[in-house]
Amino acid sequence: MTGDAMTEQITVQTFGGPTALIEVGGLRLLTDPTFDAPGDYSVGGTRVLTKTMPTATTPADLGWIDAVLLSHDQHPDNLDRAGRAFLADVPLTLTTRGGAERLGGTARGLAPWEQVELPRPDGGTLTITAAPAQHGPDGCEPVTGEVVGFVLTAADLPTVYVSGDNASLAVVEEIAARVGPVDTAVLFAGAARTVLFDGALLTLDSGQAASAARVLGARRVVPVHFEGWGHFTEGRDALVKAFTAAGLDGVLDAAFTRK
């Protein structure tokens, strides 16, 4: 089977912010569910994050979801009020260990490199491996909290990497060394910045996203989490420019480049 044919076995639909539907092996997996209306959302104290555009789907439109891949529960741009309510109707939510304790219900916490196997409708199995993520500069964890990414693998399917809110290329290099080349990388980008850490990056900027794609050997990159919130400092144009400059514009997902 050619690489392009393998990639076609994985579909990814993006809806703004970090919310994307990944269909793989007959399973429907949703990343970081956010459905609230545009507006200001508190992140503690006087700090707010501003949502600037609506999510391009609703829970009703999505239909059945087999599992949610939740990078973290602490921030409203990754899990909002409507997203929390949505989790009650999902049979499994995979997230951080602390997040699972806070959420309860069907949430299951994973430490980095811990695995879960999901049965597929076709009789196969999809392995979901928790991947490390770093939501800011070195030492950020006491402030930004624990975050997790995910690697999806099966013997007969392409490998998918979901970064979660990660700002560290060193983390990406660790993942690439551990799991080898990936077919599809769902990269949280946007160069998110707030008042934290004097405005240091909280997610990958566009140049780093291109570098991550090269490190991962990704055949396809689906950028998410680069639009819809005021703290994103780089959008679609910056991503296209960075990938083009790196000679990687051909790996950007076709649906992304058409928008």
- The gross shape turns out to be globular
Provide the β-strand percentage band: 25-35%
Topology order in helix (H) and strand (E) letters:
HEEEEEHEHEHEEEHEEHEHEHH
Name the helicity range: 10-25%
Q: Per CATH, which architecture?
A: 4-Layer Sandwich
CATH superfamily: Ribonuclease Z/Hydroxyacylglutathione hydrolase-like
Task: Specify Rg, calculated over alpha carbons.
Answer: 17 Å
List low-pLDDT spans.
none
GO molecular function, one term: hydrolase activity
InterPro entries: Metallo-B-lactamas, RibonucZ/Hydroxyglut_hydro, UPF0173_UPF0282_UlaG_hydrolase
Protein name: L-ascorbate metabolism protein UlaG (Beta-lactamase superfamily)
Pfam families: Lactamase_B_2 (PF12706)
